[in-house]
Amino acid sequence: MFKFSPSFLRDLVHKPAADRHRRNREKHTVSPMIFIGSWQLQHSETSRTHSLVIGPDLTVNIDHHTIPAQVESLTDNSLVLLDHYGYHITITADHDVPVQLFDEADDVAYFVLPNPT
Known about the structure:
Strand order of the largest sheet: 4-3-2-1-9-8-7-6-5
Strand content: 35-45%
Helix content: 10-25%
Distance between the termini: 77 Å
Number of strands: 9
Order of helices and strands: HEEEEEEEEE
Number of domains: 1
Shape: globular
Structural class: alpha+beta
Number of helices: 1
Radius of gyration: 22 Å
Oligomer: single chain
């Protein structure tokens, strides 16, 4: 007669769940593609507009000036950059479209709008 060892039963119960979680993590990679492109920025208080271009390497240009910054984090709905002064620039998205840029240095939020056609 075949006897089941406690480790065999434990592996039988726990390994499939562990494998399933690992496969889910592997499938769920965050794509920066939703942040790449050109938009207009509108100051939330003054309505002044600026141009925003985010390149494939996540380089940020505002009004044709490159903002020296490094990517600190990237999620499904946010891109957080750290500028060379130590301040964060956070771009948030809603339904895979950037909608807001927050500049921590100036404590200002900008609406991200599509470029006029």
